[in-house]
Design brief:
Helix content is 0%, strand content 38%. The chain is mainly beta.
Length: 69
């Protein structure tokens, strides 16, 4: 399954194993702005399952990440 990443006019679809960049809106959850993270999986609710800098793997909304191009 692939989900739309970011808040842009152009659709960037990413899925399990792809790389995304953390934006400022997810910094509160232990992510570093601009750092690349690998998507571990996509949840049934179409959230990204990603491990943060603290080693916690949770679901996060895709709008908090940008495509790694």
């Amino acid at each position: 399954m692939k989900v739309r990443i970011g808040c842009t006019v152009k659709d960037y679809l990413r899925g399990k194993g792809d790389i995304v960049l953390a934006s400022w809106s997810i910094e509160w959850a232990g992510f570093t702005v601009g750092k690349a993270y690998q998507i571990k999986d996509i949840s049934q609710t179409k959230n990204l399952i990603i491990e943060n800098d603290n080693g916690e793997t949770k679901e996060y909304a895709s709008v908090h990440f940008s495509p790694y191009i």
